[in-house]
Design a protein that fits this description.
315 residues; alpha/beta; ornithine cyclodeaminase, domain 1; 8-stranded parallel sheet; 11 helices; 15 strands; 34% helix; ODC_N; Ornithine cyclodeaminase; ODC_Mu_crystall; NAD(P)-bd_dom_sf
Length: 315
């Protein structure tokens, strides 16, 4: 059994095309029905303002599977500690033996989450998309854009965040990466000329509304990953010409479909893995509006963990 620390993992695994292909293959396997993926195990410790999620999946015929334990303690920044942490355990699928523990402190979750956004944009946004509206200014606001640049020639960002100083600091970081960045006073202003909108917040009330969507835009919503979070107003989903979830069940429990859970939706719900596996063409014209809700799946964790272990073993 091997134990790998974050520094070694971060050196071996970056936001690159090989990592993107590994996560995309995991989505496709899920879409073909070739993955076993149980529901998320979640536990909140309300008196401490902390939580833990456990995710796993097995991809048929894959020699390894992973179990990811992800923790969140949202008062940690006041303590000088990161708010997110965790590790991934990698097992041999046939024997059940532990092959490795990847003590990544949440790094691989960050990577696979960013790559999932890029995969959604690859299949759902206009190919000539260059301008991105980013709602939020945290780690994923930065990483989502880095991953997007693997699949689209992004050159301009428009950003809005609840704290103006956070948005300005984000803008400086992204300008250093060679992008033109505009900071806005409202979500609506940030979205006016967007080809792609990415929402990356822990919001508990909708931030994005139907009137904020320009013609032909693609929206990736990745902040809502628990029952008490919400970024999109219901009318955003209804207005979309194509609504896509990583999995419908997770979106109904943790994501943007919560308001429609157990009900017949006034729109068709597609799943990202199936769209990839079947080559579904959900963007019919340049005017098509697409929305993808990403809640984070166990198959992503198994895919990125197996990819990381291969790179670490080879090194």
């Amino acid at each position: 059994m091997q134990l790998y620390q974050r520094d070694a993992i971060a050196e071996a695994v970056t936001l690159d095309h090989d990592a993107l292909a590994a996560v995309e293959a995991g989505f496709a396997a899920l879409g073909r029905g070739e993955a076993v993926q149980p529901p998320i195990l979640s536990m909140a410790m309300e008196e401490f303002g902390s939580e833990v999620d456990v995710k796993t999946a097995h991809i048929r015929d894959a020699s390894r599977f992973a179990i990811k334990v992800s923790t969140g303690a949202f008062d940690n920044p006041k303590r000088g500690l990161p708010s997110l942490n965790g590790l991934m355990m990698v097992f041999a699928a046939e024997t059940g033996l532990v092959e490795a523990v990847l003590f990544d402190e949440g790094y691989l979750t960050m990577v696979r989450t960013a790559l999932a956004g890029a995969i959604a944009a690859k299949h759902l946004s206009r190919e000539n998309s260059r301008r991105v509206a980013v709602i939020g200014a945290g780690e994923q606001a930065e990483q989502q854009v880095k991953a997007l640049r693997l699949v689209r020639d992004i050159d301009t960002l428009d950003v809005w965040a609840r704290r103006r100083e956070a948005a300005e600091a984000y803008a400086e970081r992204m300008r250093a990466a060679g992008l033109s960045v505009n900071v806005h006073d409202s979500v609506n202003q940030a979205c006016t000329e967007a080809d792609i909108i990415v929402t990356t917040t822990p919001a508990r009330e909708p931030l994005l509304f139907a009137q904020d969507l320009p013609e032909g835009v693609h929206v990736t919503a990745m902040g809502s990953d628990s029952p008490d979070k919400r970024e999109l107003d219901d009318e955003v989903l209804i207005r979309a010409d194509a609504f896509v979830a990583d999995t419908r069940a997770q979106s109904e429990g943790n994501g943007e479909l919560k308001a429609f859970a157990g009900k017949e939706t006034p729109f068709k719900v597609h799943e990202l893995g199936k769209a990839i596996a079947e080559g579904q063409r959900l963007r019919l014209t340049d005017a098509t509006i697409t929305v993808c809700d990403l809640t984070g799946t166990g198959v992503q964790d198994t895919a990125i963990a197996a990819f990381a272990l291969e790179r670490l073993s080879a090194g």
